[in-house]
Amino acid sequence: MTMNPSTYFLASGFDWEPGQVVDNSTFRASPHETFFLANPSKSLLLVPDYMARRATEAVFEEIRATLYPEKPSRRLALYLSRTIEDAEFWVSKAARSSYRIYEVSDLERLSVADANYVWYNYCVRLHLDPIGQSRRIFSDDVASEVEHVASAYWRNEPTESHQVRSRIETLFVGALQVEQAL
């Protein structure tokens, strides 16, 4: 149960009204959910970026369950930002004019963790070969790098030392209240 409510920012393609409650069941409607489908469509299986993200999600979940079980699963979490700048980044990344930013506060916080998205994105690239096709087989070096990167993500390791600005995503399990559209 939440003791002190926190304010977050939610980038979403849904239309939310002030006072509306959003919880993790809302996430099922997200395009991100397709990475977890047991039997994705054949057309999705032909898209290298989809396959790379699907493989990344599998590795990240395995590392989380093994080394960081107290952190929320990416599959079950709502994706939030702690700053308006990071929320604006997610809107621009979505490249959809229908996305808006909402200020939300937690009503019930079951689990929350900050993670550096840059590591996720880097891991996706490791799953692609030099010509942009999905890797089917990893060398031991690439497999080790994938595991290292997944662990860095869950530790929320900064990337500034790599000359890349950290992009923090907050994984949230619980219930949120929409305060206002920004």
What are its keywords?
alpha+beta; globular; 182 residues; 5 strands; 5-stranded antiparallel β-sheet; 5 helices
What can you see in these coordinates?
With 182 residues, this protein is of the alpha+beta class. The protein has one domain. It contains five helices and five strands, in the order ββααβαβααβ. Strands 1, 2, 3, 4 and 5 form a five-stranded antiparallel β-sheet that branches. Helix 2 crosses helix 5 and helix 4 packs antiparallel against helix 5. The protein starts with 6 loop residues before the first strand and ends with a strand. The model has no long low-confidence stretch (mean pLDDT 82).
Number of strands: 5
Helix content: 25-40%
Mean pLDDT: 82
Rg from Cα: 17 Å
First-residue to last-residue Cα separation = 27 Å
- In N-to-C order, the SSE pattern is EEHHEHEHHE
In DSSP terms (H or I, runs of 4 or more residues), the helix count works out at: 5
Q: How large a portion of the residues is in β-strands, by DSSP E?
A: 15-25%
Largest sheet: 5 strands, antiparallel
- Unreliable stretches (pLDDT < 50, length at least 5) are none
Question: Given the C-alpha coordinates, what overall shape results?
Answer: globular
Q: What is the secondary structure topology, with strand pairs?
A:
Elements: E1 7-12, E2 21-23, H1 42-45, H2 48-67, E3 78-80, H3 84-94, E4 100-116, H4 117-126, H5 140-154, E5 168-181
Antiparallel strand pairs: 1-4, 2-5, 3-5, 4-5
Helix pairs in contact: 2-4, 2-5, 4-5
